[in-house]
Amino acid sequence: MNLFKKQVKFVSAICPECKGHLELDANLETAFCQYCGAQCIVENAPKKQMKHGKLETVLDFFERQQALRRQDKQERQRRIDEEERKRIEHLKKFWWIYSLIFIFTLGFLMILSLL
């Protein structure tokens, strides 16, 4: 009969600092990351594996906002590029008309200068 032997139950977790894999003793309240040395609180780890704190929630919000801004910026740039492409296509399509107008205007000005 071993009264002093305590069964150790290990829990898998992720370090909040370096995102390294941790194996934690569920009976302890704190542990240290073997990769970066950060102290991790494991009091509720077996019950709630990845509960975010207020800071993580705010950071997640800002990350989502930045992603939305990047998408919006990419969409605006795509629209600008599309408009530029259409403008160039229009110029290519009607270059001969613009050339004729220029030639007739130049010819008209030459005739006026001779008078």
Task: Write up what this structure looks like.
It is a single chain. The protein is of the alpha+beta class and 115 residues long. Helices cover 52% and strands 14% of the residues. The chain is built from two helices and four strands, in the order ββββαα. A hairpin with a 6-residue loop joins strand 1 and strand 2. It is rod-shaped. The N and C termini lie far apart (126 Å).
Provide a brief overview of the structure:
This protein is α+β, with helices and mostly antiparallel strands. It has 2 helices and 4 strands; from the N terminus they run E-E-E-E-H-H. Strands 1-2 form a two-stranded antiparallel ribbon. Strands 3-4 form a two-stranded antiparallel sheet.
Could you outline the blueprint of secondary structure elements for this entry?
Layout (H helix, E strand, L loop, with lengths): L9 E5 L6 E5 L4 E3 L6 E3 L12 H40 L1 H20 L1
Antiparallel strand pairs: 1-2, 3-4
Number of helices: 2
Question: What is the H/E string?
Answer: EEEEHH
Strand content: 5-15%
Shape: rod-shaped
Instruction: Give the strand tally.
Output: 4
Euclidean distance between termini CA atoms: 126 Å
Strand order within the widest beta sheet: 1-2
Helix vs. strand class: alpha+beta
- Biggest sheet architecture: 2 strands, antiparallel
Query: Poorly predicted ranges (pLDDT <50, ≥5 residues)?
Result: 45-50
Mean pLDDT: 78
Please bin the fraction of helical residues: 40-55%
- What gyration radius follows from the Cα positions, in whole Å? 35 Å
